[in-house]
Amino acid sequence: MKKIMMKGNEAIAEAAVQAGCRFYAGYPITPQNEIPEYLSWRMTEVGGIFLQAESELAAINMVYGAAACGARAMTSSSGPGISLKQEGISFLAGAELPAVIVNMQRGGPGLGNISASQADYFQTVKGGGHGDYRLLVYAPYTLQELWDLTLLSFDKADQYRTPVMLLGDGILGQMMEPFFPTPYRKPRLPGKKWALTGCKGREPNVIKTLFMGEGELEQKNYLLQAKYRKMKEREVRFQAYHTEDAELIVVAFGIAARIALSALRKMRQEGYKAGLLRPVTLFPFPEKVIGGLAGGGRRFLTVELNAGQMVEDVRLAVNGKSEVLFYGKPGGAVITPEELCEKLQESF
Amino acid sequence: MATPLGLKELSKKEMLLTGGHRMCSGCGAPIVVKMALLAAEQPVIAANATGCLEVSTCISEYTAWKIPWIHNAFENAAATISGVETMYRSLKKQGKIDKDIKFIAFGGDGGTYDIGFQSLSGAMERGHDMLYICYDNGAYMNTGIQRSSATPFGADTTTCPAGSAIPGKLQHRKDLTKIMAAHGVPYVAQASPSHWSDLMKKVRKALETPGPKFMNIIAPCNRGWRSRTDDAILLSRIAVETCYWPLFEIENGVTRVTVKPKEKKPLVEFLKPQGRFKHLFAPENESLLQQAQTQVDAYWAALLKEEAFYALSAGSTEQ
């Protein structure tokens, strides 16, 4: 297989097409506009559907409608646009409809700016919308992973009948780098027997999020929680670099992990025993792995492009057995590997 | 006594949107804003939906606005100014403020026709004393020229690209000006910066009319229209002369066409200088040009008929 060069946002769009996504609804917002722009012509080529909505609220609900009909459906946005989609995301979770939602994060709160940020961790991982629900969340850090995780997102969405969020950022979306366009191989998945496809010759299917019967909503929530537990058991993904002998372990996801990796190489060259733990799934969080590494005088440094969000989950995972430090920059600022090296050296 | 809207008097007034902002050279939007603010006699508080105008006039710690200005997200300029205007009325009632202040909300066509339509409609229905001005450049220019419901039929944008599958946008523009008139608000108008006197008279009239008002103003964008950077005024003039963008007002339900071109020019004169319509001039797309012309003709004829109807009924009451 030959490597190809593409812009991050376009890689997501093409990977979605490869994964059999034939329904996309979106609305303009920077820095993810290349996704709808690419799909506006690409969907025509493959006989799929591209719809530009009149708002993010409309786009996510178009996805709701298409997913209910059994389509592999996707929408994408960034920060403020994802905030507007939250009602629809909660409804997708409640109705157990599979969908892929891409968030190429930008700086906030408010309009903020359009540079990269990781300040949507809370919004993505801790709910965002109303109700007791979880999203399966993937945090890619290279264009290779952007491609591969987009493919995977559609399968996992169908497997668990759940909305999946691909949490990227402005840098990943705007940059170009070579990667292998892994061919998509569809796994064996249960058929979408629940989909609203016309009930000739069968009982009508029902998809709803309103549960007014006595105890009905409670039961529904127990079922959802059982599903989330299953995800926690089976879907955790992470990557560990030099953690075996590390005295200080950096925990970082997405673009921050990429910066951390550069810093780590330099630190190792200089003889520091530093390691990196990179969660690929943010929900489910690799809490057992981090918990297992805690203790024995080992310390953790969480690095994020925000004011400290994932660090809370690292602290919960460590559960007091290790000291957990934090280094981050909020509001669309980016950390350089040199800065991080200095911070690491201070922390040793 | 109000300042007459003549060049001599206006030249002495202060520009309330200063130069040095970061709008592209040749952009129509700041011209529209300057004219609107020049027309105002009383102090103005403005709200701004995000978009080119908002982003480019408040870079970093700088602002180009010499008036109180509040910005918010894409969908809520009308709601934001509703809050400010209501607070003003409350403070006035409490005797804490006695000034006569006018409220204007600015939004582009994306933030007005599409995502901001709900909050605009709500504000009009509640009856806030405000003027909403839409600067219509016919696409989401700030995010990279994506189609909006104001994008004209046949235009090439980044989300309805003209090619072998589609010849640009397949739908006609949403007639927002008439939709706003259907709210039964006291004043609705359409204007163009090429006809500055007409534009400013309309803003003046709107601000002097109590209650909710709406104005739709064409604002050429050379980036999105793929036109020359010095053609903003020329193109907005041709838009009027071809009746693509008729100048009219609807005052208390009565329609009046304020500028009637001496000679109605063919629509192609508006389309030809713009790269976004280039593909329409290919031989195979001739029928599309015809379709666009037919639509403009029909709209113009209906508008004149509407005006004649009101003129006639006004005549009959006078008898």
Span between termini of chain B: 34 Å
* Total count of strands of chain A: 14
Q: What is the fold-level CATH name, i.e. the topology of the largest domain in chain A?
A: Rossmann fold
- Strand % of chain B is 5-15%
User: Count of helical segments of chain A?
Assistant: 12
* Unreliably modeled segments of chain B: none
* Overall pLDDT of chain A: 97
Regarding quaternary structure, what we see is heterodimer
Report the biggest beta sheet of chain A as strand number plus sense, adding barrel if it closes.
7 strands, mixed
- Count of domain modules of chain A: 2
> Based on DSSP secondary structure assignment, what is the total number of beta strands of chain B?
8
CATH superfamily of the largest domain in chain A: Thiamin diphosphate (ThDP)-binding fold, Pyr/PP domains
Order of helices and strands of chain B: HHEHEHEHHEHEHEHHEEHH
Given the helix and strand composition of chain A, which structural class is it? Answer: alpha/beta
Largest sheet of chain B: 8 strands, mixed
Strand content of chain A: 15-25%
Distance between the termini of chain A: 43 Å
Question: Which strand order do you get reading across the main beta sheet of chain A?
Answer: 3-2-4-5-7-6-12
Second rung of CATH, namely the architecture of the largest domain in chain A: 3-Layer(aba) Sandwich
Write a short abstract of this structure:
The complex is a heterodimer of chains A (348) and B (319). Chain A has 348 residues and is an alpha/beta fold.
Question: How would you portray this structure in words?
Answer:
The complex is a heterodimer of chains A (348) and B (319). In chain A, 41% of the residues lie in helices and 19% in strands. By secondary structure, chain A is an alpha/beta fold. Chain A contains 12 helices and 14 strands. Chain A folds into 2 domains: 217 residues, Rossmann fold; 110 residues, Rossmann fold. Chain A is globular, with a radius of gyration of 20 Å. In chain A, helix 1 runs parallel beside helix 2, helix 9 packs across helix 12 and helix 10 crosses helix 11. In chain A, the strands form 3 sheets. In chain A, strands 3-2-4-5-7-6-12 form a 7-stranded mixed β-sheet, sandwiched between helices. Chain A has a 5-stranded mixed β-sheet with strand order 9-11-10-13-14, sandwiched between helices. By secondary structure, chain B is α/β, with parallel strands linked by helices. Chain B has 12 helices and 8 strands. In chain B, strands 2-1-3-4-6-5-7-8 form an 8-stranded mixed β-sheet, with helices on both faces. In chain B, helix 8 links the parallel strand 5 and strand 6. The longest helix of chain B is centred in the C-terminal third of the chain and has 33 residues. The two termini of chain B are 34 Å apart. The model of chain B has no long low-confidence stretch (mean pLDDT 96). At the A-B interface, helix 2 of A face loops of B.
